[in-house]
Amino acid sequence: MPYQSLDAVKIAETLSTLRRRVEERFPGTGLLAVCTELVGLAEKARHVTDRLTRPMILLRLGTGALIATIIAGLGGTIFTLSTPEEGFTLPDFIQTLEAGINDLVLIGIGVFFLLSVERRLKRRRTLAAISELRSIAHIIDMHQLTKDPQHALRTIIDTPASPKRELDRQELSRYLDYCSEMLSLNGKIAALYTQGFDDAVVLASVTEVETLCTGLSGKIWQKVMILETGTPSPRLEGPA
User: What span, in angstroms and rounded, lies between the C-alpha atoms of 126 and 124?
Assistant: First the structure.
């Protein structure tokens, strides 16, 4: 259904449009470089999620062959024990039964391990991609960290160590809005990984990234609200 799942292609297109908007207003800036990186991560997510939905044929064939070998070996052992040259005594039967149960447990653990190899490989690849999205969310936050709306509303005396603040009120508002959009789309990219791969560990990691992006975006919108509701003042304030 078109409106019951995220479309990786549409997300990538939206990010490409956002990148063009950032380039038109803030060419050559670090924010543009981060947005370009985010476009690349969206494309990567599209390819990775496509692979996650496909079975790993060679791995499954190898796993099936190993399991068949184990079952064949177990069957041969059972056949040998069921046709002994001499009759079993009760102690022999109990000892053989105990050893057989232990072997079955170990074989079951081995089969479970083989069957879970594909899921664990996909999980590791997915978690590595999600970790990149978590990192870029913090990078986006670093780019808006020194964008103080108070400097756009009044004149504040800077110190030699103060960051350069060259954006006016309108430019700062657009800059912060772009950061918020990038964080929102970053969370949507993370959500793509849960659509084709149902895994509790991956879901928890994606939820963490979405919560992080929502929290960081909330901080940005507090600054935007100050810009929208604040009244410009010409008075000088102390160093910042």
Answer: 5
Q: How far is CA 4 from CA 88, 137, 210, in A?
A: 64, 26, 18
d(Cα 14, Cα 38) in Å, to the nearest integer?
11
Cβ-based burial of 153 (10 A; exposed 0-12, middle 13-18, buried ≥19): middle
Q: Using the 8-state DSSP alphabet, how is residue 88 labeled?
A: P
Give the angle subtended at the CA of 185 by the CAs of 184 and 186, to the nearest 5°.
90
What distance separates the 2 farthest-apart alpha carbons in the chain? 106
Write the DSSP symbol of residue 161. Answer: T
In sequence order, the 6+-apart residues with CB closer than 8 A to the CB of 161 are none
Q: What tokens appear for 102 in the block? A: 């232990």
Model confidence pLDDT, tens digit, residues 148-182: 888 777 777 777 887 787 888 889 999 999 999 99
Identity of residue 218: G
Give the per-residue pLDDT at 15: 94
Q: Is 124 exposed, middle or buried (0-12, 13-18, 19+ CB in 10 A)?
A: exposed
Token duo for residue 239: 């160093």
Nearest to 164 by CA among 181, 179, 147: 147
